[in-house]
Amino acid sequence: MKVLPFTIPVPHDKTIIVQRETLPSFYPHLHRHAEVQITRVREGHGTLLAGNSMHPFGPGEIYVLGVNLPHVFKSSTEYFEEDSNLTIDALTIFFDPKGKMSALFDLPEMKAVQLFFEQWQCGFKIPAAGYVFFSSLIDKVEKSAGASQMAAFIEMLHMMSKVDGLQPLSTVNYAQPLTDPEGVRIASVYNYIMHNFSKPLTLDEVAQQAHLTPNAFCRYFKKHTRVTFTAFVNKVRVNQACKLLVSSNYNSIADVAYNCGFTSVTNFNYVFKNVTGRAPRDYVNEYERELKVKPR
Q: Does the reported pTM lie above 0.90?
């Protein structure tokens, strides 16, 4: 597996690509492309791997992925079960600010929007309070054509540039594309961790995936992700633990801990609080309180 360089096909009479997908699962390969990607998840859930970070995703959420940011929306395991009838539904808008649209972004009136997307190349998630508003703007772009679509598109970008409190999806900026060898190594390591985090992982076995010695691998991984190997694995495991805890599909906290690759409940509690800022039980209680106050 490598970080696949994608070329989004652009019709000769289009500069904005709108893509609606209803499939058994999301595209499963880590990839990157020259276009900014705005994805509204209508149905489906799993883990978004963006750059050096991962985030659980679910229906209603909206993600913006910057130019050349390696990413994959990894559907949850139940989507791949033999008797699964699950499907995903996503609406995605692609645009290349350096391609046909460069003249638009060079206009004085668009400079603030251009600067905003350059600064947020690491990607971001639209805050929950903005889901309904931005979903309507994205739908408007999809349903429009010609000059009306361009006007709706510019309005959407302008309103995104005004959103406060954004958090980056990745702590590493990938404005310059990875070389193929770098892409192969990083993707091999990510893929191996994502498929094996639920069992004990040793530095030696993961370093072998990158064809490096353990010491060289530690330096390489930290250089390209800005986090240590152990910290990254802990984030993967805690991310899965969060999904299990809110699903209520577990017998005990210990059950969650061992299913996510932790060797003791004590270590799980310590790592979970270090990553999320809350103890596992507090995380569940906070989630349940939020469910009660959400409008029906």
A: no
